[in-house]
Design a protein that fits this description.
The protein has about 200 residues and is of the alpha/beta class. The protein is built from three helices and eight strands. Strands 1, 2, 3, 4, 5, 6, 7 and 8 form an eight-stranded mixed beta sheet that branches. The longest helix has 24 residues. The termini are far apart.
Protein backbone atom coordinates (compact mmCIF):
# COMPACT_ATOMS: atom_id res chain seq x y z
CA UNK A 1 0.00 0.00 0.00
CA UNK A 2 2.82 2.35 0.98
CA UNK A 3 4.75 1.48 -2.20
CA UNK A 4 1.67 2.20 -4.36
CA UNK A 5 1.25 5.58 -2.70
CA UNK A 6 4.93 6.45 -3.24
CA UNK A 7 4.73 5.27 -6.85
CA UNK A 8 1.60 7.36 -7.46
CA UNK A 9 3.24 10.43 -5.86
CA UNK A 10 6.38 9.89 -7.91
CA UNK A 11 4.33 9.59 -11.10
CA UNK A 12 2.43 12.79 -10.30
CA UNK A 13 5.71 14.62 -9.70
CA UNK A 14 7.10 13.33 -13.00
CA UNK A 15 4.00 14.51 -14.92
CA UNK A 16 4.11 17.92 -13.18
CA UNK A 17 7.82 18.34 -14.01
CA UNK A 18 7.21 17.32 -17.62
CA UNK A 19 4.41 19.88 -17.99
CA UNK A 20 6.57 22.54 -16.40
CA UNK A 21 9.39 21.78 -18.85
CA UNK A 22 6.96 21.98 -21.76
CA UNK A 23 5.75 25.40 -20.66
CA UNK A 24 9.31 26.67 -20.28
CA UNK A 25 10.41 25.42 -23.71
CA UNK A 26 7.13 26.44 -25.43
CA UNK A 27 5.80 29.50 -23.61
CA UNK A 28 2.20 30.42 -24.35
CA UNK A 29 1.97 32.71 -27.36
CA UNK A 30 -0.22 35.78 -27.52
CA UNK A 31 -2.55 35.49 -30.49
CA UNK A 32 -3.41 38.71 -32.30
CA UNK A 33 -6.68 39.23 -34.13
CA UNK A 34 -7.04 41.64 -37.04
CA UNK A 35 -9.93 43.23 -38.86
CA UNK A 36 -9.86 44.90 -42.26
CA UNK A 37 -9.58 48.68 -41.96
CA UNK A 38 -12.63 50.87 -42.23
CA UNK A 39 -13.61 52.29 -45.59
CA UNK A 40 -11.16 54.88 -46.90
CA UNK A 41 -12.64 58.32 -47.34
CA UNK A 42 -14.57 58.20 -50.61
CA UNK A 43 -16.50 61.11 -52.01
CA UNK A 44 -19.38 59.43 -53.83
CA UNK A 45 -21.61 61.43 -56.09
CA UNK A 46 -24.73 62.35 -54.13
CA UNK A 47 -27.84 60.43 -55.11
CA UNK A 48 -30.20 62.42 -57.29
CA UNK A 49 -33.47 63.38 -55.64
CA UNK A 50 -35.61 61.41 -58.10
CA UNK A 51 -33.29 58.41 -58.48
CA UNK A 52 -34.87 55.11 -57.56
CA UNK A 53 -33.06 53.15 -54.87
CA UNK A 54 -31.49 50.10 -56.53
CA UNK A 55 -30.67 46.83 -54.81
CA UNK A 56 -27.53 44.73 -55.22
CA UNK A 57 -27.46 41.32 -53.59
CA UNK A 58 -23.99 40.36 -52.36
CA UNK A 59 -23.92 36.58 -52.81
CA UNK A 60 -21.78 34.25 -50.72
CA UNK A 61 -18.08 34.87 -51.42
CA UNK A 62 -16.30 31.76 -52.68
CA UNK A 63 -12.78 31.42 -51.32
CA UNK A 64 -9.90 29.23 -52.44
CA UNK A 65 -9.63 26.36 -49.94
CA UNK A 66 -6.40 27.61 -48.37
CA UNK A 67 -8.12 30.91 -47.50
CA UNK A 68 -11.21 29.38 -45.90
CA UNK A 69 -9.89 29.92 -42.37
CA UNK A 70 -9.46 32.60 -39.73
CA UNK A 71 -5.66 32.61 -40.18
CA UNK A 72 -3.81 35.28 -42.13
CA UNK A 73 -1.83 33.64 -44.95
CA UNK A 74 1.68 34.59 -46.09
CA UNK A 75 3.41 33.34 -49.24
CA UNK A 76 6.98 32.41 -48.25
CA UNK A 77 8.37 31.77 -51.74
CA UNK A 78 7.07 31.00 -55.23
CA UNK A 79 5.37 27.75 -54.12
CA UNK A 80 4.92 27.87 -50.32
CA UNK A 81 1.85 29.36 -48.62
CA UNK A 82 1.83 29.46 -44.83
CA UNK A 83 -1.17 30.19 -42.58
CA UNK A 84 -0.02 32.19 -39.55
CA UNK A 85 -0.38 30.42 -36.23
CA UNK A 86 -0.92 33.44 -34.02
CA UNK A 87 -2.10 36.17 -36.43
CA UNK A 88 -5.80 35.67 -37.04
CA UNK A 89 -8.78 37.42 -38.57
CA UNK A 90 -11.41 38.60 -36.08
CA UNK A 91 -13.92 36.45 -37.98
CA UNK A 92 -13.46 33.88 -40.71
CA UNK A 93 -12.11 35.51 -43.86
CA UNK A 94 -15.36 35.15 -45.80
CA UNK A 95 -17.21 37.26 -43.18
CA UNK A 96 -14.39 39.83 -43.05
CA UNK A 97 -14.53 40.22 -46.83
CA UNK A 98 -18.34 40.47 -46.92
CA UNK A 99 -18.36 43.19 -44.26
CA UNK A 100 -15.53 45.09 -45.90
CA UNK A 101 -16.91 44.85 -49.43
CA UNK A 102 -20.45 45.77 -48.36
CA UNK A 103 -19.20 48.92 -46.61
CA UNK A 104 -16.96 49.90 -49.52
CA UNK A 105 -19.63 49.36 -52.17
CA UNK A 106 -22.21 51.24 -50.07
CA UNK A 107 -19.90 54.26 -49.83
CA UNK A 108 -19.30 54.26 -53.59
CA UNK A 109 -22.91 53.53 -54.61
CA UNK A 110 -25.10 55.76 -52.40
CA UNK A 111 -28.22 55.08 -54.51
CA UNK A 112 -27.84 51.30 -54.14
CA UNK A 113 -28.75 49.12 -51.17
CA UNK A 114 -26.14 46.37 -50.76
CA UNK A 115 -27.88 43.41 -49.11
CA UNK A 116 -27.35 39.75 -48.29
CA UNK A 117 -29.43 37.14 -50.12
CA UNK A 118 -32.83 36.81 -48.44
CA UNK A 119 -35.30 33.99 -48.99
CA UNK A 120 -38.52 35.33 -50.47
CA UNK A 121 -37.02 38.73 -51.34
CA UNK A 122 -37.84 40.19 -54.77
CA UNK A 123 -35.36 39.32 -57.50
CA UNK A 124 -32.52 41.83 -57.88
CA UNK A 125 -29.17 42.24 -59.54
CA UNK A 126 -26.55 40.19 -57.69
CA UNK A 127 -22.78 40.06 -57.35
CA UNK A 128 -20.95 36.73 -57.44
CA UNK A 129 -17.35 36.91 -56.16
CA UNK A 130 -14.59 34.28 -56.20
CA UNK A 131 -11.33 35.01 -54.37
CA UNK A 132 -8.25 33.04 -55.46
CA UNK A 133 -5.61 35.06 -53.58
CA UNK A 134 -5.86 37.25 -50.47
CA UNK A 135 -2.52 37.03 -48.72
CA UNK A 136 0.80 38.66 -48.06
CA UNK A 137 4.05 37.91 -49.83
CA UNK A 138 7.32 37.65 -47.94
CA UNK A 139 8.87 40.25 -50.27
CA UNK A 140 6.52 42.93 -48.90
CA UNK A 141 3.35 42.90 -51.00
CA UNK A 142 -0.33 42.17 -50.41
CA UNK A 143 -2.18 40.35 -53.20
CA UNK A 144 -5.89 40.08 -54.03
CA UNK A 145 -7.06 38.23 -57.13
CA UNK A 146 -10.13 36.43 -58.41
CA UNK A 147 -13.20 37.01 -60.53
CA UNK A 148 -16.47 38.86 -60.09
CA UNK A 149 -19.68 38.55 -62.03
CA UNK A 150 -22.75 40.74 -62.07
CA UNK A 151 -25.97 38.76 -62.60
CA UNK A 152 -29.36 40.11 -63.62
CA UNK A 153 -32.47 39.53 -61.52
CA UNK A 154 -33.17 36.41 -63.62
CA UNK A 155 -29.57 35.19 -63.00
CA UNK A 156 -28.23 35.95 -66.48
CA UNK A 157 -24.62 37.23 -66.63
CA UNK A 158 -24.42 40.98 -67.21
CA UNK A 159 -20.67 41.48 -66.73
CA UNK A 160 -17.74 39.35 -65.74
CA UNK A 161 -14.20 40.46 -64.82
CA UNK A 162 -11.00 38.90 -63.55
CA UNK A 163 -8.92 41.07 -61.25
CA UNK A 164 -5.54 41.16 -59.55
CA UNK A 165 -4.37 43.92 -57.23
CA UNK A 166 -0.94 44.11 -55.60
CA UNK A 167 -0.12 46.74 -52.96
CA UNK A 168 3.32 47.23 -51.36
CA UNK A 169 3.39 47.18 -47.57
CA UNK A 170 4.20 50.56 -45.99
CA UNK A 171 6.33 48.75 -43.37
CA UNK A 172 6.93 45.21 -42.17
CA UNK A 173 4.48 43.40 -39.91
CA UNK A 174 0.96 42.06 -39.87
CA UNK A 175 -0.80 45.41 -39.24
CA UNK A 176 0.79 46.80 -42.43
CA UNK A 177 -0.21 43.64 -44.31
CA UNK A 178 -3.85 43.93 -43.18
CA UNK A 179 -3.93 47.63 -44.20
CA UNK A 180 -2.50 46.77 -47.65
CA UNK A 181 -5.07 43.99 -48.08
CA UNK A 182 -7.75 46.56 -47.16
CA UNK A 183 -6.36 48.86 -49.85
CA UNK A 184 -6.70 46.04 -52.38
CA UNK A 185 -10.34 45.62 -51.34
CA UNK A 186 -10.78 49.39 -51.90
CA UNK A 187 -9.44 48.95 -55.44
CA UNK A 188 -11.77 46.00 -56.09
CA UNK A 189 -14.84 47.88 -54.84
CA UNK A 190 -13.91 50.87 -57.04
CA UNK A 191 -13.66 48.55 -60.05
CA UNK A 192 -17.06 46.94 -59.33
CA UNK A 193 -18.75 50.28 -58.60
CA UNK A 194 -17.35 51.71 -61.83
CA UNK A 195 -19.24 49.10 -63.79
Amino acid sequence: MMIKKQLRTGLLLLVACSLGACLKSNPPVQSQRFSLPEVSAVLPKPPSANAAKQTLVLNRIQLADYLDTDRIVVQLDDVTLHPARDHLWVDNLSQELRRGLRARLSSRLPDTAIIDPLAGAPAATSLQLTIDQFHGQIDGYAVLSGQWQLLSADHKPLQSHSFKFTTPLAESGYPALVRALGNNLDLLSAQIAGQ
